[in-house]
């Protein structure tokens, strides 16, 4: 195995881990934001501030109107000493993958199909493995149609299939995509909702500071 391939596999596995880490943060953030909003309105009530949930503030005819304070649509990120909001950050979109060589992709795809096609799996094989192979087969089909070389290589590596030596553009893409994912994770960790959610002993203080920063 060449030095370039070893570097590629290392970067590849790092990016795969980062994707899994980002998925965790984004799922956890949804729960954090929902709880944060509930606690925000409770804190406003405790402080006798005239801020109600949008659905609770209505005109005389019963028509719902929005509150004057909407603390959940800001797009600022945390500064060194000031956590500003709980919105999901807007960051650079996924970097477009470089085009892979059709012959390279085709060879890998055929090797994957040989190992994962439902007709290739022995009837006496464990059901759990059958399901895993079927999932890999379907993922490989979609990846092949879209020429997604990263996913094709990921499946191949899971199956123990040697991946081809990458070119410089592919290596650069992995590095740039890793940076993008790290940036998004960093944004999430800097959100008010996340800091509040993960705080063990200062939740009330964090919430009060946030309320005072957005309710004038």
Task: Give your account of this protein's structure.
Mean pLDDT is 79; it is low at 65-69 and 73-92. The protein has 216 residues and is mainly α. It is built from seven helices and no strands. Helix 1 (3-46) crosses helix 7 and helix 2 runs antiparallel to helix 3.
Write the layout of secondary structure elements.
Elements: H1 3-46, H2 102-116, H3 127-145, H4 149-158, H5 168-189, H6 192-198, H7 203-214
Helix pairs in contact: 1-5, 1-6, 1-7, 2-3, 2-4, 3-4, 6-7
Q: Please give the radius of gyration in angstroms.
A: 24 Å
Number of helices: 7
What overall form do the CA principal axes indicate? elongated
| SS strand fraction | under 5%
Distance between the termini: 63 Å
State the share of residues found in helices, binned by percent: 55-70%
The ordered string of helix (H) and strand (E) elements is HHHHHHH
**Major pleated sheet:** none
Number of strands: 0
Structural class: mainly alpha
Mean pLDDT: 79
Low-confidence stretches: 65-69, 73-92
Record keyword descriptors for this entry.
216 residues, mainly alpha, 7 helices, 60% helix, elongated
Summarize it.
The protein has helices at residues 3-46, 102-116, 127-145, 149-158, 168-189, 192-198, 203-214. It has 216 residues and is an all-alpha fold.
